[in-house]
Amino acid sequence: MCGIAGQLGRDPGAFAARVGPRLAHRGPDDAGVWQDAGACLVHRRLAILDLSPLGHQPMASACGRWQLVFNGEIYNHGELRRRLEAEGQRFRGSGDTEVLLAWLVSRGLDGLGALRGMFAFCLYDTLERSALLARDPHGIKPLYLRRGPGGSLAFASELRALLAADGEAPSLNRQALGRYLATGSVPEPDTLVEGVQRLPCGHAASWRQGRLTLQPWGALPESLVGAAGVGAMPAAEAVALARSALEDSVAAHMVSDVPVGLFLSAGLDSASLLALAPRGLHTFTIGFQTPGAGGFDESGPAARIAAHFGAHHTPLNLTADQARQWLPAFLASQDQPSIDGYNTWCVARLATEHGLKVALSGLGGDELFGGYPSFRMVPKLRHWRRLIGPAGPPAAWLLQRLPQGRRARLQRITGLLEAPPSLAGAYGCFRGLFSPAETGRLLAHWGLRPDPAAAATATDRGGGDHGGDGEAPGGREGVAWLEGTRYLRNQLLPDSDVMAMAAGLELRLPLVDARLQRRLAPIPAALRLAEGKQLLARSVPELPDWFLNRPKQGFRFPFQLWLDDPASPLALRLPSTPRGIDLTPWYRRWSLMVLQHWLEVHIGLSLSPAPRP
C-alpha cells in the first residue's frame, strides 16, 4: 500500500518536489523518485510485503527498460511468482511489486485478468516512451488523471497531490458539484476539479506519444451485475460454495509480513471475518459516550464477540468533545468531500496508534449478501411508482403545495414521482441527498448551475454511474447492482482508502474481491440475497446464536445528536441556502458543511448567494 504519482511527456521540473510531500501520509516508510528528460515517477512506500530495501520503488526491470510505481497488494503474487519462475524468471526479493513488474513486462495488458488484489499502477517503457496504467476491477485503489500541454499526462493516488503539481488555480466542475448534492459523494470518473478525472475502475489507460487511450479490462464481477444464477441450486450446496469462497478470500487477504488487525462492529460482516481469520487478531471498535446515543453504540456486543473468538480487543469511546477536536484533522484528510468517512478516519487512527499497518474490514458484505434496507424498500418504491403511472407528475405538483412537514423526504418522493418509473429512480429516492429540484435551487442560489450541455450529459449517464453501466436489472439483484456501482464504488471505497491512508494504514476488504464474487455468482439471487443475509450467517456456523439473533443495527455515528446539541456544536460553518431547503436531517447539514470547507481550501470558492442581475 502506497502513494504514487507521475508526469509523462513533459520536463519533470519541480513535479516530484511538489507532489511527493502531498503523498507522504500514504507511505511513511520510504520514498523514491525516478526521472529523465521527459518523465517523472514518484513513490511513497508503506512496507507490508518484503520489508527490505528490495521493495523500493520506483522499481526497474532487470534490463532497465521498464519502471514501475504501484499502489496496492497482489494477493496471489506467490502463484504468479511460481508461474514466472517456471518460465525462467529469477527474483531477488519476496514482495509482490517485483512479481507484478515481471508479470506486466511478460504479459502486458493481457496479464491483468490474472491479478488478484487491489491495485493502481503505472508501468513506463523508457525505450518506447509509453506507459500502461490500470486499476483493479472494483477501483479499491484510486488513480487520478490530468492531461497537460502537448499531450502530457499527470497522475496521482490523490486529487490533492495533482492540484499541487503545477500551481495552477483549479476550476470547479459544476456538473460534478450537482451530482455531489444529489448523492453525497462525487461519482467516478468525475471530480470536483475541471480537467481531472479518475481512471474508471476495471480500466486500463495506454499513453503513447501524447495520446491517451482508455479501455475496460476487468468487467465488474458478475454478482454485482445482478446475475440471478443459472438454474436451481440446493440451499446446502449454496452454503458450502459460499463457505469455501469466503475461507479462500480471508486467507488471501491475510498474506502479510506485518501483523493484520480487524475493524470490528457488532455486524455480521466483520464478525464473520473474525470467525474465519486466525485466532489472536487485534480488533478495534468505536463506541460513544454521548447521552441518548445508546442506539448508536455497538461497543458492548463487539467486545463480547471479540472475546468469544479470542481477539485482543481495543475500543475507542468517542465523545462529542473529542469528535470536535479531531474534526480539523479529519477535514484536512478529505481528498474530496463526502457525507461518510469519519468512522474510518477514527478507527484507522486508533489502529495505527497501536502499531498496526494493516487491517481487515467487512465493507462490501451488505452489497454482496443483501443486507441493506434498500433491498426491501427500493423495489417497493418502484412498484408504488408504477401503480401511480401517468399520474406521477400531477401528484408531484400537488405534493409541492402541501404543508411542509417532513420536507426532506417529501422532496425525494416528489423527485420520484416526476420521473418515469425505474429501479434507479426508486434507488435515488431512497438513498438520495437532495432531490433534483432542490439541487437545482441550491446551484442557482450559489450561481453555479452547469451549462445545459453538461447537465444533459449527466442525465444521459444516469446521474450516478460511469459510462457503460446502463439500466439496473430488476428486483433484489438490481438493488445489489445499484449499491455496488453507486454507493460502494463512489462513496464507501474512496472514503475507506483516503481515510485509512491518512493514518498510514492499509485497509483490506475480503468481501470486495473479484474472485470471491465470481465464485458466488452461480448462486441464485433468491439464495444469495435472501433477507437478513441468511447465506452469510449459515456459511459461518461458528457465530453464536446470541449474536445471530440480535436485531440488525447498521453502524452509525450520533451526528444528529451532536449537530442538534448547542452545548456540543461541531466546528463547521453552514453555507447559505435558499428558503424552503429542509436541513433538519443531520446528513444534509453535514454534507454542505464539509463541501463548503473543501471548496474554500482547495478551490478558493465560498458558497454564498449569487449577485442579483
Automatic annotation (TrEMBL):
Pathway: Amino-acid biosynthesis; L-asparagine biosynthesis; L-asparagine from L-aspartate (L-Gln route): step 1/1. Belongs to the asparagine synthetase family. This is asparagine synthase (glutamine-hydrolyzing). Its EC number is 6.3.5.4. Residues 2-210 form the Glutamine amidotransferase type-2 domain. GO terms for molecular function: asparagine synthase (glutamine-hydrolyzing) activity. It comes from Cyanobium gracile UHCC 0139. InterPro entries: Asn_synth_AEB, Asn_synthase, ASN_synthetase/amidase, AsnB_N, GATase_2_dom, Ntn_hydrolases_N, Rossmann-like_a/b/a_fold. SUPFAM superfamilies: Adenine nucleotide alpha hydrolases-like, N-terminal nucleophile aminohydrolases (Ntn hydrolases). Keywords: Amino-acid biosynthesis, Asparagine biosynthesis, ATP-binding, Glutamine amidotransferase, Ligase, Nucleotide-binding. It is an enzyme of class 6 (ligase). Gene3D superfamilies: Glutamine Phosphoribosylpyrophosphate, subunit 1, domain 1 (3.60.20.10), HUPs (3.40.50.620). Residues 454-476 are annotated as: Disordered. It catalyses: L-aspartate + L-glutamine + ATP + H2O = L-asparagine + L-glutamate + AMP + diphosphate + H(+). It holds the Pfam family GATase_6. It comes from the Bacteria.
